[in-house]
Amino acid sequence: MTLTKPKNIVVGITGASGAIYGVRLTETLLSLGYSVHLVVSNAGWRVFKEELGYIASDREGFLNERFKGYPGSLLYHPVADIGASIASGSFRVEGMIIMPCSMGTLSAVANGTSDNLMTRAADVMLKEGRPLVLVPRETPLHAIHLENMLKLSRLGVRMIPAMPAFYFGPQSMDDLINFMVGKVLDSFNIEHNLFRRWGD
């Protein structure tokens, strides 16, 4: 009996500025055929409204409409649903990406505070030894931020700050967004063509 490798991946979107990063990441993973388990914090929904103009009374319905038409599948989990599948280590996933990641969420993950589904899912990644990528979006950073990042980095969490590069000659905001999403996908060895690599 041949077991197929799971293509489930968890995406968290917090209230840090840069909601478009999480949206583009979700779109890209869905376009590649992944089953995306999406968690948006309450503050994340606020940033959706402020930065992207997304207003939804029916959040799940809104997301299904926003991300329809891709070969992958979207599964939305409310942040308060601590009993969701991704809260258990027995549920197989490729890993988790929180993009963008607020300093509050980063601190909760660093200190094992699993008081909602997003931080619980991240805790599961740590205890199961699965890939966890955080994309911090804050400036300037103070010592507590840096200490929390160092603590998580020492545990094997990948820190990919939202710092787009310019060596590839970006011509638009989309180019900068795609670069960051591409760097995150690189950390999972997921093939993409979101930006021109050095030497290409």
Automatic annotation (TrEMBL):
It comes from the Bacteria. GO terms for molecular function: carboxy-lyase activity; flavin prenyltransferase activity. FMN binds at residues 15-17, 41, 102-105, 137. Dimethylallyl phosphate binds at residues 167, 183. Gene3D superfamilies: Flavin prenyltransferase-like. SUPFAM superfamilies: Homo-oligomeric flavin-containing Cys decarboxylases, HFCD. It catalyses: dimethylallyl phosphate + FMNH2 = prenylated FMNH2 + phosphate. The keyword Flavoprotein applies. Keywords: Flavoprotein, FMN, Prenyltransferase, Transferase. Belongs to the UbiX/PAD1 family. HAMAP family: ubiX_pad. This is Flavin prenyltransferase UbiX. It comes from Paenibacillus odorifer. The lineage of its organism: Bacteria, Bacillati, Bacillota, Bacilli, Bacillales. The gene is ubiX.
